[in-house]
Amino acid sequence: MKRVRPAHALLAAALLAGAIAAAPALAKDAPPIETLGPPPSAAASPNGIVLPQRLIAEAAAFQAFLERAQTVSTTMSSAGEVAAALKMSTAYEPRALIRGAVAYAAIAALQNATFVNAVRAAGNSPDNRQLMAGYLTNDPAYALQFAGADGAAGLAKEALGAPGLRLYLAGNEVKLSAYYVQKNAWSKEDIPNRPGRLAAVEEAGTMPLPPADDHVGALLQAESGAAPLPINAGPAQPPYTPLVARAVQLAAMAALGQAGEDAYDRLSVMAFDDTTHTCLHIAKLNLYQCLAVAKPNYEDIFCIGQHGMADTGACLVRNVGEPVPAEVRPTPNLAVKTQSRHAGG
User: How does pLDDT run across 275-288, given as a tens digit for each residue?
Assistant: First the structure.
């Protein structure tokens, strides 16, 4: 996996070489952040941090989607439940999911006060802020040189890695349930209108994530510093994956006051990672292939667990630089063991 390493010479282009060499001096020589006040473009926020409302809404949609997907039942009892679970766990467009993930992780990274203060201390004038915004736009690694960047990266990793792991593990459980549910006659019945079901899932895979207005308020409070997200993590050591670097990059733009409403288009391009996109795209293709050949309901349960949930979760875990646990496979006594476990035994 390609990783991003902080560097003293962060941009190789000759046009920017001299300016980059001066950047550390800006961070070192600036007066304390308390004497500066927020940048003018950030004045509407109590702590001088802003992100476009659309990005916050996408972060909320990402958070809500992962929460919903993790709740897919391992004890489904009808074809209707299977159809609902399929819709709930697979309706995302990869680019939209990544954009929401980066925005959500950036909000988590902003909880590191050392990092925020270091970025803002360097941006102690309009010229410096404009210069730094240019560096950040050109290279996410620029954000990783500031004090506290390792702490911000640790929060970003936890924000994506922890729910990604939960989704992966939940997907494994759902996949395993496809084996023991076969004792029920309804699970062996053919899925009605299979082509229509596949077409609906493919169409849902081209749509933005469903809105999650009920999650926006908490993210706005976290962005403003009024109420942090329940995410705790220690500093993460480099090298950082591109997905983590993108989150820290976006956090730096927000701390700098250069991520207002009019910057959404530019920031949405920034909030993307090719490696993660490739992983999610493959997960989608495998899901569609699985659904194309699935006939009885229990096979759809397998497709949901493996490709809709576990593969998606694994993409997040791998692309923040964490290992994915070994896959759990069924055993001859799976039905008895699983029924006992879900009954509290």
Answer: 999 999 999 999 99
